[in-house]
Amino acid sequence: MADSKKMVEAITSMEEDFAKWYTDVVKKAELIDYSSVRGCMILRPYGYAIWEHIQHWLDSAFKSTGHENVYMPMLIPESLLQKEKDHVEGFAPEVAWVTHGGSEKLSERLCVRPTSETLFCEHYSHIIKSYRDLPKLYNQWCSVIRWEKTTRPFLRTMEFLWQEGHTMHETAEEAIAETEQMLNIYAQLCEDVLAIPVVKGRKTDKEKFAGAEATYTIEAMMHDGKSLQAGTSHYFGDGFAKAFDIQFTGRDNKLQYPHQTSWGVTTRLIGAIIMAHGDNNGLVLPPQVAPIQVAIIPVAQHKEGVLKKAGELKQRLEKFCRVKMDDSNNSPGWKYAEYEMKGVPLRLEIGPRDIEQNQCVLVRRDNREKTVVSLDELETAIPQLFQKVHEGLYQKALANREKRTFVAHSLEEMIQVASGENGFIKTMWCGDPACEEMFKEKAGVSSRCMPFEQEHLDDVCACCGKPAKAMVYWGKAY
Amino acid sequence: MADSKKMVEAITSMEEDFAKWYTDVVKKAELIDYSSVRGCMILRPYGYAIWEHIQHWLDSAFKSTGHENVYMPMLIPESLLQKEKDHVEGFAPEVAWVTHGGSEKLSERLCVRPTSETLFCEHYSHIIKSYRDLPKLYNQWCSVIRWEKTTRPFLRTMEFLWQEGHTMHETAEEAIAETEQMLNIYAQLCEDVLAIPVVKGRKTDKEKFAGAEATYTIEAMMHDGKSLQAGTSHYFGDGFAKAFDIQFTGRDNKLQYPHQTSWGVTTRLIGAIIMAHGDNNGLVLPPQVAPIQVAIIPVAQHKEGVLKKAGELKQRLEKFCRVKMDDSNNSPGWKYAEYEMKGVPLRLEIGPRDIEQNQCVLVRRDNREKTVVSLDELETAIPQLFQKVHEGLYQKALANREKRTFVAHSLEEMIQVASGENGFIKTMWCGDPACEEMFKEKAGVSSRCMPFEQEHLDDVCACCGKPAKAMVYWGKAY
User: Fold this and answer.
1) What is the DSSP secondary structure assignment for residue B71, as one 8-state letter?
2) Residue B391 in 3-state DSSP?
């Protein structure tokens, strides 16, 4: 117990300092390490394995909806980045520039990709000639660099891993349907796999992607009430197509511009998992992406038969889940604390008395609930408990969001609500960026999204009193 | 047939110009596209899918031998790259330098990783403290950049995709065993999956990796007799560990330096597949990595029942292989040529007469052999034919290598043999780099490897006549 206490004491409590708690967890759970490269992190095996499970689920979802993976160069010539005006304005201030190859100065600077719209468009201009070549449904898995001033592991780093989908369609309707389809896949990932409820909606013009006509988003609420943009999909219309001269012969035999989308999620989803589900004992992982789903802890392992039985159980469990048996010399208490820190969804305790009674104890990470289970029923009990942990996490996150979702009817009310605890603040909005700016300046909140599920709170904008156009979620965001 | 002829005519024959044939195939088979980024290529869906199959096989092999995936930053500070003297000398001339972030000039240049030994070592210095922390068996999948003057798709590009394994061990013996294990996995990939026979051996000091004590390699012979280094593993001893101050407390309670390895294969394996198996009709893919394993071509598809039957077959075949059914309006001849160009291992032809007789025709891509198969036996016949195609490819490549493996007993003989057709030239060697240089200068060949399977050809070095230390394979290489 002394050991176990030592480990738990090593992290700051959430209530004391949420930001410090967060960085303690990412280090102690061995998700990342820092390096001498400013603003970049090392994804350690435990952190990377979570990403691999997310990748695997998404990659299947992309392929089953007809998408194909490709790989584009990581360097973009400055002249190519400049082809679409809004895009270059949005990204040029935050790119890393390569100016030398070996000892030779380059005639044109190359940026390390911050996103790859320009490269995809150049390629599409080579391969799209006829409506028969459409749609093109491409995706790539890679890392990108954005030159950030202040960084935090997973949430905002100079380099991050992501997937970027880039598609081209014959009609605007098809392209818009694609952005909706991909947003729904992201929402499904968050809710059904990561146990994080999300609000689906559209970004205001101020918050949309550089060069997009419309940006759709899923917004998740973290334990501290701050919002996290968990995934976005963008509709570009034919703006890039015109800038890059991508034209196809339509069914009417006339030259037309195709309609474009892009969509992406990043390793910041791991940050979302940590901040949506974690607690003062460390990480809490949703079972579907947990690198270890069950930690088997032999109790009184020096006694005859205990390690043998624990080893047998490991072999049995490996057939249907990801399992680790810890037969190290650390005390059971130390091990409990370690696998709690690592967020392992279920702990299986097995000792001499359990063996005698042909049973074991299963302990849920999310609420520490213990269940005594017959050793004959593990194949059904464990998947059921995974489902319960998933539901428990989801409901807890949902309850937190509901508790922290507020309404404001005026600027004064907005200022007052925003000065209290963090959360989503709903208001009506006239659509004027000036009101959006006013909320930001006076209340410190940004617009998170105009949710697809609109509510009618008032007839008028909470800021200026002019007729309202939409209900908006506002909040402080990561 | 006019169509089909047009397509075939579009590639240069191997005999006329092998280099041109190669670039024709990579373009026409839609493996890559060029971009405005000099020396970088776009991996199109068909090319990337081959890489995904290679990745999938390797990743399983790595994990089943205890390796874990991680992700390191793509940028390396100049000071970190300089820590190991031989390493920086080898790589500094060919790295891309980032000098600006946004509009700000950096105080220290960062290079885009050409390889990640330095980053792994920095991380290992943080996490290796005790013999209990060893071994560390890490791998990462990423892309790297090397500033090459002349480039060719897959074979030599400024940016390429690869995996780089980096491991740390308690003893030299363990580390050397790791390099052997990984070389064997690479050889198994080439021979059992890609159907390319390889020679396993050790590189001479001149050809070894910058900073390594020993480099092991697998060398494959291409159709034109040139050699291709298909994978390497390196033993570093404790050189990097000393440079990066990585020390652990050993079982004897004393501070020690760990022993290190690294190993990698790249997308150039796709170049190897093309040049080992391709022919004048285009690509020929080994079945295990072919994105499409069977192309179903309906014959007389306007006739009643043909498309329905072809669709049924597609659904059946999908259960055990990767299949495409082409019901486009192109002629069967055009389709035959297209899937030959794309190297699809088996073509399944089904027409009205076949349906009447409950059969279809299966045509092997490698030798165009036709087999009439009962529709009741596809589930057994197709996997058997995959195996036959694999063996056919392997034997053909092996026969080419055997035909093109020569022996030289003197410098004069070396010059004479090397001026003939390309191939491996075996000689005895004294171990003196001066003789190696002489062979390069006079005969235009480099040492490929000192094969593990040594033969005793002579007592003395073929170049200088001094006592021989090893038999070496020499050749022209990609």
Assistant:
1) B
2) helix
Strand A294-298 versus strand A346-350 pairing type? parallel
Tokens describing residue A169: 């369609």
Phi, psi of A231 (to 5 degrees): -175, 150
User: Residue A135 in contact with residue A167, Cβ under 8 Å?
Assistant: yes
Neighbours of B206 (CB within 10 A): 11
- What is the structure's pLDDT at A2? 41
**CB-CB contact of A343 with A282 (8 Å):** yes
| Best residue in A31, A33, A36 for a mutation probing chain B (most B CBs within 10 Å) | A36
Neighbours of A416 (CB within 10 A): 13
Q: Which of A27, A35, A64 to mutate to test the interface with B (most CBs of B within 10 A)?
A: A35
What's the DSSP call for residue B467? B
Could you say which of A33, A40, A99 has the minimum Cβ distance to residue B97? A99
Shortest Cα–Cα distance, B319 to chain A (Å): 15
The predicted-structure confidence for B118-174, as pLDDT tens digits, reads as follows: 999 999 999 999 999 999 999 999 999 999 888 999 999 999 999 999 999 999 999
Is the CB of B37 less than 8 angstroms away from the CB of A159?
no
Q: Which residue of A has its CA nearest to B69?
A: A45
pLDDT digits (tens, 9 = 90+) for B291-323: 999 999 999 999 999 999 999 999 999 999 999
- For Cα atoms B152, B158, B163, give the angle at the middle one, nearest 5 degrees: 100
> How far apart, in whole angstroms, are the C-alpha atoms of residue A113 and residue A8?
40
Residue A300, SS3? coil
> What is d(CA B87, CA B243) in angstroms, rounded to the nearest whole number?
11
Smallest Cβ–Cβ distance between A101 and the set B49, B75, B96 belongs to: B96
Give the C-alpha separation, B138 to B68, whole Å.
Answer: 5
Contact indicator for B284, B365 with CB cutoff of 8 Å: yes
- For B104, counting Cβ atoms within 10 Å of its Cβ (0-12 exposed, 13-18 middle, 19+ buried), the class is exposed
Evaluate whether B475 touches B425 at the Cβ level (below 8 Å). Answer: yes
pLDDT, tens only, A158-174: 999 999 999 999 999 99
The β-bridge relationship of strands A75-77 and A104-112 is: antiparallel
